[in-house]
Write a structure and sequence with these properties.
single chain; 79 residues; mainly alpha; 0% strand
Length: 79
């Protein structure tokens, strides 16, 4: 049979590992919530950016042709 002292050490280590595992699961859940919130915020900002671009494009379309010369260069950074 295993030495009781050795068995107690193993038991203690297993219990610490289980506690650590539970802590990591809670941390992971919190991080997952933060990722979801940041993704929602990113999507909202993208939507606002696209709406602002559309408003600017509409305003540019309303300007006389002579006022918009040189402004029609396409922006390759748009997504």
């Amino acid at each position: 049979m295993a030495d009781p002292k050795h068995l107690d050490q193993i038991t203690e280590r297993v219990e610490r590992l289980l506690l650590r595992h539970e802590e990591l699961q809670r941390t992971n859940a919190l991080l997952h919530e933060q990722v979801q919130a940041l993704q929602a915020e990113r999507d909202a900002l993208k939507s606002r950016l696209n709406a602002a671009r559309a408003r600017i494009d509409a305003l540019l379309d309303r300007l006389p042709a002579s006022a918009t010369e040189g402004l029609t260069t396409p922006n390759k950074d748009r997504e």
